[in-house]
Write a structure and sequence with these properties.
single chain; 2 helices; mainly beta; 197 residues
């Protein structure tokens, strides 16, 4: 778990640092919103070039695709830090998925499950890390309010009021139904040698 947290923290710091004010970052958003089902996927794909490395402080200065620079500090847990060199390319890819599905019959158990996986580069390779967290939850529909465009669901620990954009949902979602929710986020950071021209 500790490694997972470190990987997630480093990945988020790196991704956010590279994405910040980055107008050229490639971002794809796909949304499906049909009666009884909502699905949204967002993918951000960016890269930066290593400009400077301070081996003592572990500070890395990156040049972003828009020409700006940003500095990050790699924690001691980053494996193979000494393999990073000036002009290496750091590639960060962030993927998130949100999905809601109405359940008319089946298990009535309300609950939540979390699964996390992580990996990092082998010893001697360029640094890299992958982290994925998936949260699956089932909640009861306790209120359907077409007038205010909301559906209220009760999970194991809390109640959430969902704002509904597509009025078709009100034709299929009823009090007593259940909602399955799936949230997945995945972050991949990799370091490669300079691009050959």
């Amino acid at each position: 778990m500790k490694v997972s947290i470190v990987l997630l923290t480093l990945s988020m710091i790196t991704t956010n640092a590279v994405i910040a004010e980055e107008k050229s970052a490639e971002e794809k958003v796909i949304i499906s919103n049909t009666a009884g089902q909502v699905k949204g996927i967002a993918i951000v794909d960016v890269q930066a070039t290593v400009q400077k490395i301070d081996k003592k402080t572990r500070e890395i200065t990156l040049k972003k695709e828009n020409g700006g620079t940003v500095s990050i500090v790699a924690p001691e847990t980053v494996r193979n830090f000494d393999q990073i060199e000036v002009n290496d390319i750091i590639h960060a890819k962030y993927y998130t998925l949100v999905e809601f599905q109405v359940v008319k019959e089946g298990s009535t158990v309300v609950g939540r499950a979390v699964q996390e996986t992580s990996s990092r580069a082998q010893l001697g390779d360029k640094p890299g890390a992958n982290f994925t967290r998936t949260i699956a939850a089932r909640a009861n529909v306790t209120k359907v309010d077409p007038e205010n465009k909301t559906i209220t669901i009760q999970g194991k620990d809390n109640t959430v009021e969902l704002n509904v954009k597509n009025p078709e949902h009100f034709k299929v979602v009823k009090v007593g139904d259940q909602i399955d929710a799936l949230f997945t986020e995945s972050i991949a950071i990799s370091v490669s040698g300079p691009e050959k021209k």
